[in-house]
Amino acid sequence: MSSSPNQNPGSTRIAAGQPSGRKRPSGLKIGIAAGILAVLGAGVAVATTAANSSAPDTASAASATGPAAELKLGYFGNITHATALVGVQKGFIAKELGETKLSTQVFNAGPAAIEALNAGAIDATYIGPNPAINSFVKSKGESISIIAGAASGGAQLVVKPEIKTAVDLKGKILASPQLGGTQDVALRAWLGKQGYKTNPDGGGDVAINPTENAQTLKLFQNGKLDGAWLPEPWASRLVLQAGAKVLVDEKDLWDGSLTGKPGEFPTTILIVNKKFAAEHPQTVDALLKGHVEAVKWLNDTPAAEKATEVNAALKEVAGKALSQDVIDRSLKNIVFSVDPLAGAFKKLLQDGVDAGTTKQADINGIFDLTQLNAVTGEKTSAAGLGKE
User: What is this structure's pTM?
Assistant: First the structure.
């Protein structure tokens, strides 16, 4: 998969750019200091957004009576975002939006998408849970609502073949998509449980280099990285195209005690800017209808056809399709569901606290599943963390 800009006139690709830092292999462009400011300082932008939304003017109040003129939707060029990929590619979301224009932006990782959401550049986005939690915490609950789940699974720590166990990781260099992103937090939390210390600035017993996914593949192929905790299809690409092996499949770390679904953990959720949702509930309802239809299609469609359609959508946003073995392996590792697995979120928050990318806080109210449950006619649980 290429990281070149999306050529479609209605869509933009955004990747997190990062300058080099301590213990980084030559040519590795990462900006840990900038990343820390983006992750931990995002509350400033969020607070500004919240302040601006606290007293809507008469025109804004009036706009609540009808759908938005435009919905700006974010998502990633990953298989874990296949719900968004097919929802956009096959027109499920646009059909439900009717006269509301759909425009999209493609991101590399969650913190960048959160920045765009807080700045008003997008109204809703598919994203991993940890950046959503961080935004909610920093804004004291004013920035976002989680309105649905999208995908579970599809994240692995893949490493050089000579690394046999966690003991072999001391002094090694690993990558994650972006500081504070869901895979970054999962990696730091897991390393902590193995007795390793990591720092957001890249120091510690194991160096973690937040790196754009396509660059991670190249650096691993060139021997400049020892491994990475990645979402699909990037874990599969490193395994099948760069000779990596799976050291940790994240599904093995979730026993189901928090969610009732062993092996499942939230990888992709759908969130919306609270101000936008309050002003345009009809548009959010339409987005959810298209989202539910996309999830149903992914679960009902035969594997070969599903792989073909998802690959076509990836080609649209990335300029290049995946090899058949990569997309087949990726899809087998993912469960598509509208259930956000809310029972996992207190643990995800604690993982972020332990990783140093967020602060301890009350996340009650982070979910608003009322419209989802109205659309599906079922009761998806918010696990006591919001409306359902």
Answer: 0.84
Alpha-carbon span 85 to 78, nearest angstrom: 9
Q: How far apart are CA 83 and CA 156, in angstroms?
A: 20
pLDDT tens profile 135-167: 999 999 999 999 999 999 999 999 999 999 999
Give the C-alpha separation, 312 to 332, whole Å.
Answer: 18
| CB proximity list for 335: less than 8 A, separation 6 or greater | 151, 152, 153, 264
Indicate if the alpha-carbon torsion angle 289, 290, 291, 297 is positive or negative: positive
Q: What are the helix (H) ranges across 158-302?
A: 182-193, 213-221, 234-242, 274-279, 281-300
* Percent helix, percent strand, percent coil in the chain, to nearest 5: 45, 20, 35
**74's tokens:** 């974010």
d(CA 24, CA 26): 6
Report, in angstroms and rounded to the nearest whole number, the Rg of the chain calculated over CA atoms: 19
